[in-house]
Amino acid sequence: MTDTRALNDNISIEQSGDIALICINNPPVNASGLLVRQGLMAAITDLNATAEVKVIAIYAAGRTFVAGADIKEFGKPPVEPFLPDVFNAIEASSIPVISILHGTALGGGFELALATHARIGIEGLKVGLPEVNLGLLPGAGGTQRLPRLAGMAFTMDMALGGKPVNGATALEAGAIDRLVSGDPRKVALSAAQEVIDGTLPTRPTGSLAVEADPDLLEATANKLRMKQPHLYSPHKIVEAVAASVKPLEEGLQIERAAFLSCMDTPQRAGLIHAFFGERAVSNIPEAKGDTRDIAKVGIIGGGTMGSGIATACLLAGLPVRMIEVAQDGLDRGLATVTNNLEGAVKRGKLTEAKKDAALAAFQPSLMMEDLSDVDLVIEAVFESMDVKRDIFGKLDVICKEGAILASNTSYLDINDIAACTKRPQDVLGLHFFSPAHVMRLLEIVQGKDTAPDVLASGFAFAKRLKKVGVLAQVCDGFIGNRIMNHYAKAVGYLVLDGASPAEVDQALEGFGLAMGPHKVGDLAGLDIGWANRKRTADQRDPADRYATPHADRICEQGWFGRKTGTGYYDYSGDRPVPNPAALAIIDEIRSELGITPQAFSAEEIVERYITAMIVEAVRVVEDGTAKRPVDVDMVFLFGYGFPRFRGGPLHEADQIGIDTLIARIERYGTEDPRYWQVPALLRKMQEDGETFAGLNRKG
Q1: How many percent of the chain have pLDDT more than 90?
Q2: pLDDT range class, residue 158, cuts 50, 70, 90
Q3: Do 498 and 454 fall into the same domain?
Q4: Looking at 194, 228, 263, which one is the last position of a domain?
Q5: Residue 517 sits in a domain of what CATH number?
């Protein structure tokens, strides 16, 4: 006889003879919210109190097991019962408890399974401990129970990497006991019967011993100190895993203390901001509504950018036609795309079969007329308005009605480009970042006539390519490059005032940038910035105190960075070293300008760099180029290497404080009042007691 009763909206108990099934039903991902925690605690307590069954099986309805915490609870005061207490009650159950895992079991969901007395996975399962991605550590037993099942090395790989593993890997490691196929409820009944029959062993995870591995712990800790000195939670993960050799109760206390210490860090706030920001940028009216079908894409230009965009489209399963003006350019494009796809195979991101299918869907051509039936054309040629006008004039004639015409321009006016057509409503900017098949940012630039369904299609296209689409309005450089051009001046001022390029790079890498700005310039090619400076030379303010002439003079020598072997650094040896000839040019210009070099501390360099970035970022929000502060933050996290744990420049501005920022700008303004000016929005925020987080909520 079967009896089913609901404990609340998310938890029900089905009792069938000697078996009790606890069903978690909190769609869409069965997150471990308050009702789930309350229901699980009540179910385990009630079943143990009545002792009417011999085994309890926990499974989940829908497409997945518990896939993590309830994000609606993020930032709110925690409410009892807490996950560790629920899981401790499950492990302490006198009636054996087993878990049936399907879909994804992540974070607290996987920790729930670890607290049960046996774990059965269903084919297709993935398990993981992703908390490190939010600046946290597994705080409900993950660092204590998983080592008892799968060892310290496996636990640290999962907890430090933050990526899920498949069921077969989890089974091989001992993290789950079996991997089967079937419906979760039916598997739960079958496995529960096996427990009763004695063919499925059960035991509390805490009863197992952990094999200590001090060499592994020390090596991992040393590696983290070298590779991730800025981060906090990875180091606490190692400390927590090290405590797993202690009795379970003691280890859990150490883990909880480490978890709570991570909760108090600015890094956790920055990473949470990044987590929600990635979702917020597309949660706007412009990204919703009707879209146009994009089944076939055309790319104009087979250079690095065009080939990267083509690769991204092919990886997303879209057929691509690439157009070049000469056979050698087309051959280079085909070779680049092929190398990109082969690289994806080597990294395990793509199978050989899918690579072959992608190449079969790639059609290089020298005839622009071959774009007549594509749904989206992306122009990716060099930054010349004359060239782009010519191309869009031809596309206007060639492309079918309703086709979307996009430019990958980094700076140029989308409205001027659209004006070359009789269909400006079909034109928008799709600004990819190099390498386009790797970098996740896609600035979606709205022209004054861009149709709503074209704009929404841009966001849908970004999603299909697994990119973070951010809305931008038309201006020189849009969001990212406009801000970069401003703070690049601050970098130039620092160098000519006395800091060496290497000192600037080292200070900013200490702040958390993966590479300093001079290393980035050398990597991307110094000629790119030089070309843009020449393009805008007539717009330069003659009163600009330096206008960074050293960058131009270095380029005049033919030193463009890595591709020429020399730039700010010399790449002729085993490792890059500062280029003494570039330093000599800088000294020469200082002398010409009558500058007496001064010393800058790493703190001063970082302060000026970040403040300059924030100043222009505020102006970008102020004039509506960016819709909200969070849009600026996501542009810099996903396109410019801003450290994710800092959340983005305007999230960082909130950490610094408006009063401090204004005081800094005013202090720097005594040196250079033309460059350092307090934006009006920042003044108003100071008067209103406003924050950028507050502006995000209003936006």
Answers
A1: 88
A2: very high
A3: no
A4: 263
A5: 1.10.1040.50
pLDDT in tens, 433-487: 988 999 999 999 999 999 999 999 999 999 999 999 999 999 999 999 999 989 9
Question: Would residue 9 count as lying in a domain?
Answer: yes
Region 352-370 average pLDDT: 96
Residues 57 and 159 in one domain: yes
| Mean pLDDT over the full length of the chain | 94
**Which runs of E-coded beta strand occur in 34-153?**
55-60, 97-101, 104-106, 118-122, 126-128
| pLDDT value at 385 more than 60 | yes
**What share of the chain has pLDDT > 70, as a percent?**
99
- Assigned domain for 493 exists: yes
pLDDT for the residue 443: 98
Exactly one of 111, 194, 255, 607 is catalytic; which is it?
A: 111
Query: How many angstroms separate the CA atoms of 653 and 630, rounded?
Result: 12
Does residue 382 fall inside a structural domain? yes
| Shared domain check, 332 and 209 | no
DSSP codes of every residue in 108-130: HHHHHHHHSSEEEEETT-EEE--
Instruction: Clarify whether residues 319 and 345 are in a common domain.
Output: yes
One-letter-per-residue 3-state SS of 318-346: CCEEEECCCHHHHHHHHHHHHHHHHHHHH
> Of the listed 14, 131, 443, 503, which one is catalytic?
131
Q: Annotated catalytic, 131?
A: yes
Antiparallel, parallel or unpaired: β 362-365 and 55-60:
unpaired
Does 349 fall in a domain?
A: yes
CB atoms within 10 A of CB 329: 18
| Catalytic status, residue 218 | no
- Which structural domain range is residue 42 located in? 2-263
Number of domains in the chain: 3
